[in-house]
TrEMBL record:
Belongs to the FAD-binding monooxygenase family. Residues 1-14 have a biased composition (Basic residues). Keywords: FAD, Flavoprotein, NADP, Oxidoreductase. PANTHER family: FAD-BINDING MONOOXYGENASE STCW, L-ORNITHINE N(5)-MONOOXYGENASE-RELATED. This is Uncharacterized protein. The keyword Transport does not apply. Pfam families: FMO-like. Its cofactor is FAD. InterPro entries: FAD-bind_Monooxygenase_sf, FAD/NAD-bd_sf, Flavin_mOase-like. Residues 1-20, 572-601 are annotated as: Disordered. The keyword Nuclease does not apply. GO terms for molecular function: flavin adenine dinucleotide binding; N,N-dimethylaniline monooxygenase activity; NADP binding. Gene3D superfamilies: FAD/NAD(P)-binding domain.
Amino acid sequence: MHPHTKGLNRHTNKHGYTVPDITYKDPNNRRLRVVTIGTGFSGVLLAYKLKNETENVEHVMYEKNGDIGGTWLENKYPNCACDVPSHSYTYNFALNPFWPELYSKSDQIWIYLDRVCRAFDLRKYMHFNSRVIEAKWSEDDSRWDLKIEQSYADETKKIVYDHCDVLLQVTGLLNHPIVPSIEGLENFRGRVLHTAQWPDDYGESQWKGQRMVIIGAGSSSVQTTPGVQPHVKHLDIFIRSKAWLASAQPDNVAKPTFSKNEQEEFLNDKAKLVSQARIYEEKVNMIWKAMLNDSPEQKVLQERSREKMRKHLKRPELIEALTPDFPVGCRRTTPGVPFMEALTQPNVNTHFTAVSKITETSVIGEDGTEVEDVDAIVMATGFDTTYRPHFDVIGQNGISLRDKFTPDPDSYLSMAVPAFFGPTFPVLAGSVTASLTAIADFAIKMINKIQAENLRGLAPKQSVTDQFNTHVQTALHGFVWSNDCNSWYTRRDGRVTAVWPGSALHYQDVVSSPRWEDWEITYKNPHNMWAYLGLGFTKTERDPKADKAPYLTVDCLDPAFYNLASTPLFEGKPPTAEEARKRSLTQPPGMKNQRSVVADH
Protein backbone atom coordinates (compact mmCIF):
# COMPACT_ATOMS: atom_id res chain seq x y z
CA MET A 1 0.00 0.00 0.00
CA HIS A 2 1.26 3.46 -0.88
CA PRO A 3 1.95 5.87 2.05
CA HIS A 4 -0.68 8.29 0.68
CA THR A 5 -3.43 5.70 1.20
CA LYS A 6 -2.17 3.99 4.35
CA GLY A 7 -5.05 3.44 6.75
CA LEU A 8 -7.70 3.88 4.04
CA ASN A 9 -10.54 1.40 4.42
CA ARG A 10 -11.19 0.61 0.75
CA HIS A 11 -14.74 -0.36 -0.10
CA THR A 12 -15.71 -3.48 -2.02
CA ASN A 13 -19.08 -3.21 -3.75
CA LYS A 14 -21.70 -5.94 -4.02
CA HIS A 15 -20.23 -7.13 -7.33
CA GLY A 16 -16.85 -7.81 -5.75
CA TYR A 17 -15.11 -4.74 -7.17
CA THR A 18 -12.43 -3.05 -5.08
CA VAL A 19 -10.61 -0.01 -6.44
CA PRO A 20 -6.91 -0.94 -6.73
CA ASP A 21 -4.33 1.15 -4.90
CA ILE A 22 -2.36 2.18 -7.98
CA THR A 23 -1.05 5.44 -9.38
CA TYR A 24 -2.72 6.67 -12.56
CA LYS A 25 -0.56 6.08 -15.68
CA ASP A 26 2.40 4.79 -13.67
CA PRO A 27 4.34 2.25 -15.79
CA ASN A 28 5.26 0.46 -12.58
CA ASN A 29 1.64 -0.65 -12.24
CA ARG A 30 2.24 -3.37 -14.83
CA ARG A 31 5.34 -4.87 -16.37
CA LEU A 32 4.81 -5.76 -20.02
CA ARG A 33 6.64 -8.42 -21.98
CA VAL A 34 6.97 -7.56 -25.66
CA VAL A 35 8.29 -9.98 -28.27
CA THR A 36 9.42 -8.82 -31.71
CA ILE A 37 9.91 -11.36 -34.49
CA GLY A 38 12.64 -10.19 -36.85
CA THR A 39 15.76 -8.03 -36.57
CA GLY A 40 15.89 -6.50 -40.02
CA PHE A 41 15.53 -2.79 -40.72
CA SER A 42 12.16 -2.53 -38.97
CA GLY A 43 13.19 -4.75 -36.06
CA VAL A 44 16.22 -2.61 -35.26
CA LEU A 45 13.99 0.47 -35.40
CA LEU A 46 11.56 -1.07 -32.90
CA ALA A 47 14.41 -2.08 -30.60
CA TYR A 48 15.55 1.55 -30.45
CA LYS A 49 12.02 2.90 -29.96
CA LEU A 50 11.11 0.46 -27.20
CA LYS A 51 14.36 1.15 -25.38
CA ASN A 52 13.91 4.91 -25.43
CA GLU A 53 10.15 5.46 -25.36
CA THR A 54 8.77 2.89 -22.91
CA GLU A 55 9.22 2.11 -19.22
CA ASN A 56 8.95 -1.17 -17.33
CA VAL A 57 8.85 -3.13 -20.59
CA GLU A 58 10.80 -6.34 -21.10
CA HIS A 59 11.68 -6.61 -24.78
CA VAL A 60 12.78 -9.89 -26.37
CA MET A 61 13.54 -10.33 -30.07
CA TYR A 62 13.74 -13.60 -32.02
CA GLU A 63 15.64 -13.81 -35.31
CA LYS A 64 15.84 -16.90 -37.53
CA ASN A 65 19.24 -15.87 -38.93
CA GLY A 66 22.57 -15.74 -37.13
CA ASP A 67 22.69 -11.94 -36.98
CA ILE A 68 20.77 -8.74 -37.66
CA GLY A 69 19.96 -7.33 -41.08
CA GLY A 70 17.15 -9.45 -42.50
CA THR A 71 17.18 -9.15 -46.28
CA TRP A 72 20.48 -7.22 -46.14
CA LEU A 73 22.15 -10.20 -44.45
CA GLU A 74 20.54 -12.85 -46.62
CA ASN A 75 20.89 -11.32 -50.08
CA LYS A 76 24.49 -11.47 -51.30
CA TYR A 77 24.06 -11.70 -55.05
CA PRO A 78 26.37 -9.55 -57.22
CA ASN A 79 25.60 -5.82 -56.98
CA CYS A 80 22.81 -6.37 -54.42
CA ALA A 81 21.73 -2.87 -53.37
CA CYS A 82 18.79 -0.83 -52.13
CA ASP A 83 16.90 0.98 -54.89
CA VAL A 84 16.02 3.78 -52.47
CA PRO A 85 18.68 6.54 -52.26
CA SER A 86 21.00 5.81 -49.34
CA HIS A 87 20.49 9.11 -47.54
CA SER A 88 16.76 8.34 -47.49
CA TYR A 89 17.27 4.79 -46.27
CA THR A 90 18.30 5.73 -42.73
CA TYR A 91 16.69 6.28 -39.36
CA ASN A 92 15.97 9.92 -38.59
CA PHE A 93 17.73 9.56 -35.22
CA ALA A 94 20.88 8.18 -36.86
CA LEU A 95 21.38 9.75 -40.29
CA ASN A 96 24.41 8.06 -41.81
CA PRO A 97 27.25 10.36 -42.95
CA PHE A 98 29.25 7.41 -44.30
CA TRP A 99 27.22 6.30 -47.32
CA PRO A 100 29.72 5.82 -50.16
CA GLU A 101 27.17 5.63 -52.99
CA LEU A 102 23.77 7.00 -53.98
CA TYR A 103 22.38 3.44 -53.99
CA SER A 104 24.36 1.53 -51.40
CA LYS A 105 25.18 -2.16 -51.58
CA SER A 106 23.72 -4.70 -49.17
CA ASP A 107 26.95 -5.05 -47.17
CA GLN A 108 27.12 -1.26 -46.71
CA ILE A 109 23.54 -1.24 -45.40
CA TRP A 110 24.35 -4.11 -43.04
CA ILE A 111 27.36 -2.19 -41.69
CA TYR A 112 25.08 0.79 -41.03
CA LEU A 113 22.57 -1.37 -39.13
CA ASP A 114 25.42 -2.95 -37.17
CA ARG A 115 26.67 0.50 -36.14
CA VAL A 116 23.18 1.48 -34.99
CA CYS A 117 22.98 -1.66 -32.86
CA ARG A 118 26.43 -1.01 -31.40
CA ALA A 119 25.78 2.67 -30.71
CA PHE A 120 22.57 2.00 -28.79
CA ASP A 121 23.41 -1.46 -27.38
CA LEU A 122 20.45 -3.12 -29.10
CA ARG A 123 21.77 -6.67 -29.57
CA LYS A 124 21.18 -7.37 -25.87
CA TYR A 125 17.49 -7.85 -26.69
CA MET A 126 18.10 -10.28 -29.55
CA HIS A 127 18.16 -14.09 -29.74
CA PHE A 128 19.62 -15.34 -33.03
CA ASN A 129 19.16 -18.66 -34.84
CA SER A 130 15.71 -18.71 -33.24
CA ARG A 131 12.82 -19.32 -35.62
CA VAL A 132 9.31 -18.73 -34.30
CA ILE A 133 7.21 -21.62 -35.60
CA GLU A 134 3.95 -20.88 -33.79
CA ALA A 135 2.26 -17.92 -32.11
CA LYS A 136 -1.09 -18.58 -30.44
CA TRP A 137 -3.32 -16.23 -28.46
CA SER A 138 -4.36 -17.67 -25.08
CA GLU A 139 -7.83 -16.54 -24.04
CA ASP A 140 -7.32 -17.86 -20.50
CA ASP A 141 -4.02 -16.05 -19.88
CA SER A 142 -4.56 -13.02 -22.15
CA ARG A 143 -1.20 -13.47 -23.81
CA TRP A 144 0.61 -14.83 -26.84
CA ASP A 145 2.15 -18.29 -26.39
CA LEU A 146 5.16 -18.84 -28.65
CA LYS A 147 6.93 -21.93 -29.90
CA ILE A 148 10.50 -21.34 -31.08
CA GLU A 149 12.99 -23.61 -32.84
CA GLN A 150 16.58 -22.77 -31.92
CA SER A 151 19.53 -24.02 -34.00
CA TYR A 152 23.04 -24.61 -32.68
CA ALA A 153 26.53 -24.69 -34.17
CA ASP A 154 26.64 -28.51 -33.98
CA GLU A 155 23.53 -28.55 -36.25
CA THR A 156 21.25 -29.72 -33.45
CA LYS A 157 17.89 -28.07 -32.84
CA LYS A 158 15.84 -27.44 -29.72
CA ILE A 159 12.24 -26.37 -29.17
CA VAL A 160 11.74 -23.67 -26.53
CA TYR A 161 8.64 -21.82 -25.39
CA ASP A 162 7.96 -18.20 -24.49
CA HIS A 163 5.02 -15.87 -24.00
CA CYS A 164 4.31 -12.16 -24.26
CA ASP A 165 1.65 -9.51 -23.77
CA VAL A 166 2.39 -7.82 -27.10
CA LEU A 167 3.60 -9.49 -30.28
CA LEU A 168 5.25 -7.44 -33.04
CA GLN A 169 5.87 -9.28 -36.30
CA VAL A 170 8.31 -7.47 -38.58
CA THR A 171 9.59 -10.32 -40.73
CA GLY A 172 9.21 -8.40 -43.98
CA LEU A 173 8.33 -9.64 -47.45
CA LEU A 174 11.68 -10.22 -49.13
CA ASN A 175 12.91 -13.34 -47.36
CA HIS A 176 11.00 -16.30 -48.83
CA PRO A 177 12.31 -16.80 -52.39
CA ILE A 178 10.12 -18.30 -55.08
CA VAL A 179 11.60 -20.95 -57.38
CA PRO A 180 9.19 -21.55 -60.26
CA SER A 181 8.11 -25.05 -61.16
CA ILE A 182 9.76 -25.68 -64.53
CA GLU A 183 9.69 -29.01 -66.31
CA GLY A 184 13.06 -30.77 -66.13
CA LEU A 185 14.67 -28.42 -63.61
CA GLU A 186 15.66 -31.33 -61.38
CA ASN A 187 17.58 -32.92 -64.28
CA PHE A 188 19.87 -29.96 -64.95
CA ARG A 189 23.53 -30.96 -64.48
CA GLY A 190 24.90 -27.50 -63.82
CA ARG A 191 24.44 -25.13 -60.93
CA VAL A 192 20.98 -23.77 -60.01
CA LEU A 193 20.65 -20.93 -57.52
CA HIS A 194 18.25 -18.20 -56.47
CA THR A 195 19.56 -14.66 -56.14
CA ALA A 196 18.38 -14.62 -52.51
CA GLN A 197 20.46 -17.72 -51.73
CA TRP A 198 23.69 -16.83 -53.48
CA PRO A 199 26.48 -19.06 -52.11
CA ASP A 200 29.70 -17.53 -50.80
CA ASP A 201 31.79 -19.90 -52.93
CA TYR A 202 30.34 -18.72 -56.25
CA GLY A 203 32.26 -15.62 -57.26
CA GLU A 204 34.00 -14.05 -60.23
CA SER A 205 36.63 -16.77 -60.51
CA GLN A 206 33.89 -19.41 -60.79
CA TRP A 207 31.82 -17.45 -63.34
CA LYS A 208 34.75 -16.85 -65.66
CA GLY A 209 34.38 -18.88 -68.82
CA GLN A 210 30.84 -20.03 -67.99
CA ARG A 211 27.61 -19.71 -69.92
CA MET A 212 25.01 -18.40 -67.48
CA VAL A 213 21.24 -18.05 -67.81
CA ILE A 214 19.28 -15.55 -65.70
CA ILE A 215 15.52 -16.03 -65.48
CA GLY A 216 13.60 -12.85 -64.66
CA ALA A 217 13.95 -9.09 -64.99
CA GLY A 218 12.91 -7.78 -61.59
CA SER A 219 15.05 -5.82 -59.15
CA SER A 220 17.46 -8.67 -58.36
CA SER A 221 18.03 -9.42 -62.06
CA VAL A 222 18.54 -5.72 -62.82
CA GLN A 223 21.31 -5.65 -60.21
CA THR A 224 22.84 -9.10 -60.81
CA THR A 225 23.15 -8.83 -64.59
CA PRO A 226 25.72 -5.98 -64.74
CA GLY A 227 27.59 -7.66 -61.88
CA VAL A 228 28.20 -10.92 -63.74
CA GLN A 229 28.17 -9.78 -67.39
CA PRO A 230 31.81 -8.61 -67.59
CA HIS A 231 33.07 -11.91 -66.16
CA VAL A 232 31.04 -14.68 -67.81
CA LYS A 233 31.76 -16.14 -71.23
CA HIS A 234 28.15 -15.65 -72.28
CA LEU A 235 24.95 -14.51 -70.59
CA ASP A 236 21.36 -15.27 -71.64
CA ILE A 237 18.43 -13.52 -69.96
CA PHE A 238 14.82 -14.67 -70.20
CA ILE A 239 12.36 -11.79 -69.77
CA ARG A 240 8.59 -12.29 -70.00
CA SER A 241 7.34 -8.86 -68.83
CA LYS A 242 8.07 -5.28 -69.78
CA ALA A 243 9.21 -2.83 -67.13
CA TRP A 244 10.30 0.76 -66.65
CA LEU A 245 14.01 0.37 -66.00
CA ALA A 246 15.12 3.91 -65.25
CA SER A 247 14.33 6.22 -62.39
CA ALA A 248 12.52 9.24 -63.79
CA GLN A 249 14.77 11.99 -62.45
CA PRO A 250 17.27 13.62 -64.85
CA ASP A 251 20.79 12.16 -64.95
CA ASN A 252 22.39 15.30 -63.50
CA VAL A 253 20.26 15.30 -60.31
CA ALA A 254 21.67 12.23 -58.60
CA LYS A 255 25.26 12.19 -57.37
CA PRO A 256 26.47 8.57 -57.81
CA THR A 257 29.17 8.53 -55.12
CA PHE A 258 30.27 10.40 -51.99
CA SER A 259 33.99 10.89 -51.41
CA LYS A 260 35.77 10.39 -48.07
CA ASN A 261 36.04 14.17 -47.74
CA GLU A 262 32.30 14.58 -48.27
CA GLN A 263 31.61 11.88 -45.69
CA GLU A 264 33.81 13.73 -43.19
CA GLU A 265 31.91 16.95 -43.91
CA PHE A 266 28.62 15.18 -43.24
CA LEU A 267 30.03 13.81 -39.97
CA ASN A 268 31.22 17.19 -38.75
CA ASP A 269 28.35 19.31 -40.10
CA LYS A 270 25.05 17.77 -39.04
CA ALA A 271 23.05 20.53 -40.76
CA LYS A 272 24.66 19.57 -44.06
CA LEU A 273 23.91 15.91 -43.38
CA VAL A 274 20.24 16.68 -42.75
CA SER A 275 20.08 18.83 -45.89
CA GLN A 276 21.49 15.95 -47.95
CA ALA A 277 18.79 13.59 -46.67
CA ARG A 278 16.06 16.17 -47.25
CA ILE A 279 16.99 16.46 -50.95
CA TYR A 280 15.72 12.94 -51.60
CA GLU A 281 12.91 12.90 -49.04
CA GLU A 282 11.34 16.08 -50.41
CA LYS A 283 11.40 14.66 -53.94
CA VAL A 284 9.85 11.29 -53.09
CA ASN A 285 7.20 12.90 -50.87
CA MET A 286 5.84 14.81 -53.86
CA ILE A 287 5.41 11.81 -56.18
CA TRP A 288 1.80 10.93 -55.33
CA LYS A 289 0.17 13.22 -57.89
CA ALA A 290 2.21 11.55 -60.61
CA MET A 291 0.52 8.23 -59.76
CA LEU A 292 -2.77 9.51 -61.21
CA ASN A 293 -3.50 8.07 -64.63
CA ASP A 294 -2.96 10.63 -67.41
CA SER A 295 -1.86 13.38 -65.02
CA PRO A 296 0.69 15.86 -66.40
CA GLU A 297 3.19 14.61 -63.82
CA GLN A 298 2.69 10.99 -64.96
CA LYS A 299 3.28 12.03 -68.56
CA VAL A 300 6.54 13.72 -67.54
CA LEU A 301 7.67 10.54 -65.75
CA GLN A 302 6.91 8.43 -68.80
CA GLU A 303 8.72 10.74 -71.20
CA ARG A 304 11.82 10.97 -69.00
CA SER A 305 11.89 7.19 -68.58
CA ARG A 306 11.42 6.57 -72.31
CA GLU A 307 14.24 8.99 -73.04
CA LYS A 308 16.59 7.14 -70.69
CA MET A 309 15.62 3.74 -72.04
CA ARG A 310 16.20 4.91 -75.63
CA LYS A 311 19.56 6.38 -74.61
CA HIS A 312 20.91 3.31 -72.82
CA LEU A 313 19.26 0.39 -74.67
CA LYS A 314 20.28 1.84 -78.05
CA ARG A 315 19.04 -1.06 -80.18
CA PRO A 316 15.46 -0.62 -81.52
CA GLU A 317 14.49 -4.24 -80.83
CA LEU A 318 15.47 -3.89 -77.15
CA ILE A 319 13.69 -0.56 -76.80
CA GLU A 320 10.48 -1.93 -78.32
CA ALA A 321 10.53 -5.19 -76.35
CA LEU A 322 11.19 -3.62 -72.94
CA THR A 323 9.30 -0.30 -72.97
CA PRO A 324 5.90 -0.79 -71.25
CA ASP A 325 2.51 0.42 -72.40
CA PHE A 326 1.35 0.86 -68.79
CA PRO A 327 2.09 3.90 -66.58
CA VAL A 328 5.23 4.40 -64.52
CA GLY A 329 4.61 3.05 -61.03
CA CYS A 330 2.17 0.27 -61.95
CA ARG A 331 5.11 -2.06 -61.34
CA ARG A 332 8.05 -1.18 -59.13
CA THR A 333 10.47 1.05 -61.04
CA THR A 334 14.12 0.11 -60.68
CA PRO A 335 17.13 2.34 -61.40
CA GLY A 336 18.47 0.25 -64.27
CA VAL A 337 21.08 2.12 -66.31
CA PRO A 338 23.88 -0.47 -65.74
CA PHE A 339 21.39 -3.25 -66.56
CA MET A 340 20.34 -1.65 -69.83
CA GLU A 341 23.94 -1.07 -70.83
CA ALA A 342 24.78 -4.71 -70.03
CA LEU A 343 22.02 -5.90 -72.37
CA THR A 344 23.79 -4.21 -75.28
CA GLN A 345 27.09 -6.05 -74.76
CA PRO A 346 28.21 -8.64 -77.34
CA ASN A 347 28.26 -11.52 -74.83
CA VAL A 348 24.58 -11.03 -73.87
CA ASN A 349 21.46 -12.43 -75.54
CA THR A 350 18.01 -11.35 -74.38
CA HIS A 351 15.01 -13.65 -74.92
CA PHE A 352 11.57 -12.12 -74.48
CA THR A 353 9.75 -15.27 -73.49
CA ALA A 354 9.04 -17.36 -70.42
CA VAL A 355 11.01 -20.56 -69.77
CA SER A 356 9.00 -23.70 -70.48
CA LYS A 357 11.52 -26.51 -70.07
CA ILE A 358 15.02 -27.30 -68.82
CA THR A 359 17.12 -30.26 -69.93
CA GLU A 360 20.39 -31.60 -68.57
CA THR A 361 22.36 -28.89 -70.35
CA SER A 362 19.93 -26.40 -71.89
CA VAL A 363 17.11 -23.93 -71.21
CA ILE A 364 14.12 -23.78 -73.58
CA GLY A 365 11.72 -20.84 -73.90
CA GLU A 366 8.00 -20.96 -74.63
CA ASP A 367 8.72 -19.58 -78.11
CA GLY A 368 11.02 -22.53 -78.85
CA THR A 369 14.29 -20.69 -78.23
CA GLU A 370 16.91 -23.09 -76.84
CA VAL A 371 20.10 -22.03 -75.07
CA GLU A 372 22.56 -24.93 -75.04
CA ASP A 373 25.68 -25.80 -73.05
CA VAL A 374 24.49 -23.89 -69.97
CA ASP A 375 26.74 -24.03 -66.90
CA ALA A 376 24.57 -22.15 -64.38
CA ILE A 377 20.95 -21.03 -64.02
CA VAL A 378 20.18 -18.03 -61.81
CA MET A 379 16.59 -17.69 -60.63
CA ALA A 380 15.90 -13.97 -60.29
CA THR A 381 12.26 -14.85 -59.72
CA GLY A 382 11.42 -12.83 -56.63
CA PHE A 383 9.74 -13.64 -53.34
CA ASP A 384 6.47 -14.81 -51.87
CA THR A 385 4.64 -11.50 -51.37
CA THR A 386 1.22 -12.89 -50.42
CA TYR A 387 1.56 -11.48 -46.87
CA ARG A 388 0.59 -14.84 -45.38
CA PRO A 389 2.94 -15.68 -42.49
CA HIS A 390 5.31 -18.62 -42.89
CA PHE A 391 4.54 -19.91 -39.42
CA ASP A 392 1.29 -20.57 -37.60
CA VAL A 393 -0.32 -17.43 -36.13
CA ILE A 394 -3.57 -18.25 -34.31
CA GLY A 395 -5.59 -15.34 -32.97
CA GLN A 396 -8.81 -14.88 -31.02
CA ASN A 397 -11.36 -17.71 -31.36
CA GLY A 398 -8.75 -19.92 -33.04
CA ILE A 399 -8.66 -17.90 -36.26
CA SER A 400 -5.54 -18.46 -38.38
CA LEU A 401 -3.83 -15.43 -39.89
CA ARG A 402 -3.08 -17.50 -42.99
CA ASP A 403 -6.79 -18.14 -43.42
CA LYS A 404 -7.57 -14.49 -42.63
CA PHE A 405 -5.28 -13.44 -45.50
CA THR A 406 -6.92 -15.84 -47.97
CA PRO A 407 -7.91 -14.72 -50.52
CA ASP A 408 -7.60 -11.04 -49.60
CA PRO A 409 -4.83 -9.71 -47.31
CA ASP A 410 -7.08 -7.04 -45.82
CA SER A 411 -5.76 -5.17 -42.80
CA TYR A 412 -6.49 -2.12 -40.68
CA LEU A 413 -4.24 0.78 -41.79
CA SER A 414 -1.59 -1.72 -42.98
CA MET A 415 -0.86 -2.73 -39.40
CA ALA A 416 -3.41 -4.94 -37.66
CA VAL A 417 -6.08 -7.54 -38.36
CA PRO A 418 -9.48 -8.23 -36.74
CA ALA A 419 -9.50 -11.10 -34.20
CA PHE A 420 -5.78 -10.72 -33.51
CA PHE A 421 -5.21 -9.22 -30.10
CA GLY A 422 -1.87 -8.06 -28.85
CA PRO A 423 -1.58 -6.21 -31.24
CA THR A 424 -0.14 -8.00 -34.28
CA PHE A 425 1.65 -6.08 -37.00
CA PRO A 426 1.72 -8.53 -39.93
CA VAL A 427 2.84 -6.13 -42.61
CA LEU A 428 5.31 -3.33 -42.85
CA ALA A 429 4.85 -2.44 -46.53
CA GLY A 430 7.35 -0.45 -48.48
CA SER A 431 10.83 0.85 -47.78
CA VAL A 432 10.13 4.49 -46.95
CA THR A 433 11.71 4.89 -43.53
CA ALA A 434 9.45 7.75 -42.46
CA SER A 435 6.42 5.49 -42.89
CA LEU A 436 8.14 2.67 -41.01
CA THR A 437 8.87 5.14 -38.22
CA ALA A 438 5.20 6.17 -38.17
CA ILE A 439 4.19 2.53 -37.70
CA ALA A 440 6.77 2.09 -34.94
CA ASP A 441 5.43 5.21 -33.22
CA PHE A 442 1.91 3.79 -33.46
CA ALA A 443 3.13 0.56 -31.84
CA ILE A 444 4.71 2.51 -28.98
CA LYS A 445 1.46 4.42 -28.38
CA MET A 446 -0.45 1.16 -28.31
CA ILE A 447 2.00 -0.48 -25.92
CA ASN A 448 1.79 2.53 -23.61
CA LYS A 449 -2.02 2.37 -23.74
CA ILE A 450 -2.04 -1.35 -22.93
CA GLN A 451 0.19 -0.67 -19.95
CA ALA A 452 -1.47 2.53 -18.69
CA GLU A 453 -5.05 1.24 -18.92
CA ASN A 454 -4.26 -2.39 -18.04
CA LEU A 455 -5.75 -3.76 -21.24
CA ARG A 456 -6.28 -7.44 -21.80
CA GLY A 457 -6.26 -7.15 -25.56
CA LEU A 458 -7.36 -5.08 -28.52
CA ALA A 459 -8.06 -5.67 -32.19
CA PRO A 460 -9.57 -3.53 -34.95
CA LYS A 461 -13.30 -3.94 -35.46
CA GLN A 462 -14.28 -6.05 -38.45
CA SER A 463 -16.82 -3.49 -39.68
CA VAL A 464 -14.23 -0.70 -39.54
CA THR A 465 -11.64 -2.82 -41.34
CA ASP A 466 -14.14 -3.77 -44.05
CA GLN A 467 -15.05 -0.14 -44.68
CA PHE A 468 -11.39 0.87 -44.76
CA ASN A 469 -10.55 -1.75 -47.39
CA THR A 470 -13.60 -0.77 -49.45
CA HIS A 471 -12.31 2.80 -49.36
CA VAL A 472 -8.84 1.63 -50.47
CA GLN A 473 -10.11 -0.18 -53.55
CA THR A 474 -12.47 2.66 -54.51
CA ALA A 475 -9.93 5.42 -53.92
CA LEU A 476 -7.24 3.74 -56.04
CA HIS A 477 -9.49 3.50 -59.08
CA GLY A 478 -8.03 5.91 -61.60
CA PHE A 479 -4.48 5.58 -60.28
CA VAL A 480 -1.71 3.71 -62.09
CA TRP A 481 -2.38 0.42 -60.25
CA SER A 482 -5.76 0.10 -61.97
CA ASN A 483 -3.90 -0.72 -65.20
CA ASP A 484 -3.04 -4.20 -66.44
CA CYS A 485 0.54 -4.93 -65.44
CA ASN A 486 2.19 -7.97 -63.87
CA SER A 487 2.94 -6.66 -60.38
CA TRP A 488 2.96 -7.91 -56.80
CA TYR A 489 1.09 -4.71 -55.93
CA THR A 490 -2.10 -6.15 -57.46
CA ARG A 491 -3.93 -9.44 -57.95
CA ARG A 492 -4.84 -10.79 -61.36
CA ASP A 493 -8.45 -9.68 -60.84
CA GLY A 494 -7.28 -6.08 -60.38
CA ARG A 495 -7.56 -5.87 -56.59
CA VAL A 496 -4.76 -3.72 -55.17
CA THR A 497 -3.14 -5.41 -52.17
CA ALA A 498 0.05 -3.50 -51.41
CA VAL A 499 -0.57 0.21 -51.87
CA TRP A 500 -1.74 2.85 -49.40
CA PRO A 501 -4.41 5.11 -50.99
CA GLY A 502 -2.40 8.27 -50.56
CA SER A 503 1.06 9.75 -50.26
CA ALA A 504 3.61 8.74 -47.64
CA LEU A 505 2.95 12.04 -45.86
CA HIS A 506 -0.77 11.24 -45.92
CA TYR A 507 -0.13 7.84 -44.33
CA GLN A 508 2.11 9.26 -41.63
CA ASP A 509 -0.48 11.89 -40.75
CA VAL A 510 -3.34 9.35 -40.62
CA VAL A 511 -1.58 6.96 -38.22
CA SER A 512 -0.03 9.69 -36.05
CA SER A 513 -3.19 9.91 -33.90
CA PRO A 514 -4.66 6.46 -33.11
CA ARG A 515 -8.43 6.15 -33.53
CA TRP A 516 -9.15 4.00 -30.48
CA GLU A 517 -12.85 4.07 -31.34
CA ASP A 518 -11.98 1.70 -34.22
CA TRP A 519 -10.83 -1.02 -31.82
CA GLU A 520 -12.46 -3.77 -29.80
CA ILE A 521 -10.88 -3.34 -26.36
CA THR A 522 -11.02 -5.66 -23.36
CA TYR A 523 -9.62 -5.03 -19.90
CA LYS A 524 -7.67 -7.08 -17.39
CA ASN A 525 -9.90 -6.15 -14.45
CA PRO A 526 -12.95 -8.45 -14.66
CA HIS A 527 -15.20 -6.12 -12.66
CA ASN A 528 -14.65 -2.59 -13.96
CA MET A 529 -12.83 -1.15 -16.99
CA TRP A 530 -12.09 2.05 -15.04
CA ALA A 531 -9.98 0.29 -12.43
CA TYR A 532 -6.84 1.80 -13.96
CA LEU A 533 -7.89 5.19 -12.54
CA GLY A 534 -6.95 3.87 -9.11
CA LEU A 535 -7.69 5.98 -6.03
CA GLY A 536 -7.23 9.29 -7.80
CA PHE A 537 -3.49 9.86 -7.43
CA THR A 538 -1.09 10.77 -10.23
CA LYS A 539 2.67 10.31 -10.37
CA THR A 540 3.06 14.05 -9.73
CA GLU A 541 1.42 13.81 -6.31
CA ARG A 542 3.42 10.76 -5.29
CA ASP A 543 6.81 12.07 -6.44
CA PRO A 544 8.31 14.69 -4.08
CA LYS A 545 10.49 16.07 -6.88
CA ALA A 546 7.74 16.41 -9.48
CA ASP A 547 6.45 19.77 -10.72
CA LYS A 548 3.18 20.32 -8.86
CA ALA A 549 1.85 22.96 -11.27
CA PRO A 550 3.23 22.06 -14.72
CA TYR A 551 0.55 24.10 -16.47
CA LEU A 552 1.99 27.40 -15.16
CA THR A 553 5.13 28.48 -17.01
CA VAL A 554 6.44 31.64 -18.63
CA ASP A 555 6.02 29.95 -22.00
CA CYS A 556 2.25 29.84 -21.43
CA LEU A 557 1.98 33.63 -21.36
CA ASP A 558 0.58 35.24 -24.53
CA PRO A 559 2.41 38.56 -25.30
CA ALA A 560 -0.76 40.08 -26.82
CA PHE A 561 -2.28 40.49 -23.37
CA TYR A 562 0.74 42.36 -22.01
CA ASN A 563 1.12 44.51 -25.11
CA LEU A 564 -2.35 45.87 -24.35
CA ALA A 565 -0.86 47.81 -21.41
CA SER A 566 0.70 50.33 -23.80
CA THR A 567 -2.54 51.09 -25.68
CA PRO A 568 -5.72 53.12 -24.93
CA LEU A 569 -7.65 49.84 -24.79
CA PHE A 570 -5.93 48.99 -21.51
CA GLU A 571 -8.42 51.04 -19.47
CA GLY A 572 -12.06 50.03 -19.39
CA LYS A 573 -15.12 49.63 -17.17
CA PRO A 574 -17.97 47.13 -17.04
CA PRO A 575 -21.01 48.04 -19.23
CA THR A 576 -24.35 48.92 -17.71
CA ALA A 577 -27.18 46.42 -18.08
CA GLU A 578 -28.71 48.53 -20.89
CA GLU A 579 -25.37 48.76 -22.73
CA ALA A 580 -24.89 45.00 -22.44
CA ARG A 581 -28.44 44.35 -23.75
CA LYS A 582 -27.84 46.50 -26.84
CA ARG A 583 -24.53 44.76 -27.51
CA SER A 584 -26.20 41.34 -27.43
CA LEU A 585 -28.59 42.43 -30.21
CA THR A 586 -25.79 43.64 -32.47
CA GLN A 587 -24.39 41.18 -35.03
CA PRO A 588 -20.61 40.95 -35.34
CA PRO A 589 -19.04 42.48 -38.47
CA GLY A 590 -19.53 40.32 -41.54
CA MET A 591 -22.53 38.47 -40.08
CA LYS A 592 -25.30 40.65 -41.57
CA ASN A 593 -26.33 38.29 -44.36
CA GLN A 594 -25.04 35.04 -42.87
CA ARG A 595 -27.61 32.35 -42.15
CA SER A 596 -27.47 29.95 -39.23
CA VAL A 597 -25.23 26.95 -39.91
CA VAL A 598 -27.34 24.86 -37.55
CA ALA A 599 -30.59 25.86 -39.30
CA ASP A 600 -29.19 24.86 -42.70
CA HIS A 601 -28.48 21.35 -41.49
